[in-house]
Amino acid sequence: MDKINILYTEEEIDKRVRELASELYKTYNDEEVVFVCTLKGAVFFACDLLKRYEGDARLEFLRVSSYEGESSTGKISLKMPLDAEKIYGKHVVIIEDIVDTGYTLEYIRKYVSDMHPKSLIECTLLDKKARRVVDINPTYSGFVIEDLFVVGYGLDYDQKYRNLPYIGVVVKE
Ligand code: IMP
To answer: Among 48, 100, 127, 158, which one carries the catalytic annotation?
Structure first.
């Protein structure tokens, strides 16, 4: 396996996820919330966030694709749709792994908002703010990071490294 430099340890991620879960709970209290997890990258984050969330949570999945290797193609395609009935009239939180150019989140936001939720916000684990092309800012973000290609905790490089329990950067020899 390639050498990986750790950026956030399991403990650091866990601490931040707990903080986000508690901030979200303060927003909704006991109102029902539908969390929409974007596959595959956000799945580890979504599971941990929901385990820490104390309110009434539902979980739905959506899959879009835009990346090949290390670069966004800019062309987003829907690979697994959402059931509109599960979204209509609900408080919805889109859970993303990472926001880079912003194209993917912009696409998902529009797709979900066309299903007329009661409210809609986004919660991303990582935000590469400096790389943004589209004017979109997630409501909650775990960590704002520099322009680095990161892997682990669900994030992949050509489908590899998702299973790492930490977030790191692949050291290219
Ligand atoms: P955007 O459309 O450029 O904002 O890209 C967002 C999507 O690209 C994310 O949901 C990830 O799947 C992927 N992505 C962006 N940056 C990284 C990275 O550093 N590591 C792994 N995947 C990334």
So the answer is: 100
Question: How many other CB atoms are found less than 10 A from the CB of residue 87?
Answer: 22
Q: pTM to 2 decimals? A: 0.95
> What strand order describes the sheet that includes 140-144?
71-80, 57-68, 33-39, 91-99, 119-127, 140-144
Q: Is 97 in the pocket of ligand 1 (CB under 6 A)?
A: yes
The token pair at 57 is 């949570």
For the Cβ of 65 lying below 6 angstroms from any atom of ligand 1, the answer is no
In this prediction, residue 68 carries a pLDDT of: 59
What pLDDT shows up at residue 69? 55
**Are the C-beta atoms of residues 7 and 151 closer than 8 Å to each other?**
no
pLDDT, residue 71, reads 62
Residues of the chain with pLDDT under 50: none
- Predicted local distance difference test score (pLDDT) of residue 75: 84
> Atom 12 in ligand 1: which residue has the minimum CA distance?
41
Q: Which residues of 116-144 are buried (b: 16+ CB within 10 A; e: fewer)?
A: ebeebbbbbbbbbeebbeeeeebebbbbe
Q: How much distance in Å is there from the Cα of 30 to the middle of ligand 1? A: 32
> Is 104 a pocket residue for ligand 1 (Cβ < 6 Å)?
yes
- What are residue 170's DSSP bridge partners? 4
Q: The dihedral of CA 79, 82, 84, 89: what is its sign?
A: negative
